[in-house]
Amino acid sequence: MGDPKKRRKKYSAPAQKWEKSRIEAELILTREYGLKNKREIRKADAKLRNFKSQAKRLVALTTPQAQKERTQLLTKLKSLSLIKEDASMDNILDLTLNNLLDRRLQTVLFKKGLTKTVKSARQFIVHGHVLVNDIKMTVPGYLVNVQEEQHLSYALNSSFVDNMHPERLPSAPKKPRPKKEVRRFRRR
Question: Is 24 in the same domain as 96?
């Protein structure tokens, strides 16, 4: 069983470490979702694989316990807004990694317009400026429920509560820089 104090990895390493297409796809995801490292992608991927394997197992079973587990899995994924209200077990297999990454606290905070960038959302969360249901949340990878999404706010002791804070003001569109004049010298 192991020592309960020892932390275990929640993900597995890829089978091929130097696969070019996977590395490029992970790089795009880390930029788009403001992730710290690829470990966060692997954790989300492991969680998604867990949902899918559980759905595959439950589709084959017909016992009353399997029916209870089906309804629990469907309600959990509906509360996370990963599937629609009228979805079936087959819809779970259609989930992608992007669907799961969109439900992270960091991404939801950015999409709600509470921060300018995804990376600043991560910094606000880690530094304790964000409340979820009046509870300080410091985990950027926390999966936000639909009900909790309405109750996202800044901590009362945070300086970001003020709407005129420079980080909260919408950034003005940047003007393109004038091109520098290039002088060309002729040889004589």
Answer: yes
Q: DSSP 3-state assignment of 154?
A: strand
How far, in Å, are 3, 43, 51, 97, 152 from residue 111 at the CA level?
40, 22, 25, 17, 12
82 inside domain: yes
Domain annotation covers residue 3: no
Distance between CA atoms of residues 47 and 182, nearest Å? 54
Same structural domain, 90 and 120 = no
Q: Would you give the distance in Å from CA 63 to the centre of its chain?
A: 34
CA distance 36 to 38: 7
* pLDDT tens per residue, range 16-31: 999 999 999 999 999 9
pLDDT tens digit string along 128-149?
999 999 999 999 999 999 999 9
DSSP 36-93: SSHHHHHHHHHHHHHHHHHHHHHHH--SHHHHHHHHHHHHHHHHTTSS-TT--HHHHT
